[in-house]
């Protein structure tokens, strides 16, 4: 389906809450074919780790949205603030037989 200017108007001119995720929800919410909003656990922002602290459980997430600094970027920006989510990414690479990125190791 092609995005047209009139489609942007129904999302408030493209300024939807939640950036890209909010825009997509507003864009497809009025779709006559229907729209299923998945539970939050299918798009957990890594920032939840910082806000929930010890209550954050990676096991409760099906998909972690690595917003901001990415663990595969040089120096792994965010690894100190988000040790669980970034550590999980490095551990997954290791389980897949892939080497560390930029000299970093899995935690």
Verbal overview:
This protein has 107 residues and is mainly alpha-helical. 33% of the residues lie in helices and 4% in strands.
Summarize the helices and strands and which ones pair or pack:
Elements: H1 5-9, H2 19-29, E1 44-45, H3 47-52, E2 64-65, H4 83-95
Parallel strand pairs: 1-2
Number of strands: 2
Q: From the structure provided, what is the oligomeric state, counting identical versus distinct chains?
A: single chain
Radius of gyration, CA atoms, in whole angstroms: 17 Å
**Main sheet: strands, sense, barrel:** 2 strands, parallel
Q: Mean of the pLDDT scores? A: 78
Low-confidence blocks of residues:
none
Structural class: mainly alpha
- Report the portion of residues in β strands: under 5%
Q: Percent range for helical residues?
A: 25-40%
Spatially, the strands of the biggest sheet line up as: 1-2
- State the separation between the terminal residues, measured CA to CA: 43 Å
The backbone outline, from C-alpha atoms, is elongated
Instruction: Determine the number of helices (DSSP H or I, runs of at least 4 residues).
Output: 4
Order of SSEs: HHEHEH
Tag the structure with descriptive keywords.
single chain, 107 residues, mainly alpha, two-stranded parallel sheet, elongated
Summarize the structure.
With 107 residues, the chain is mainly alpha-helical.
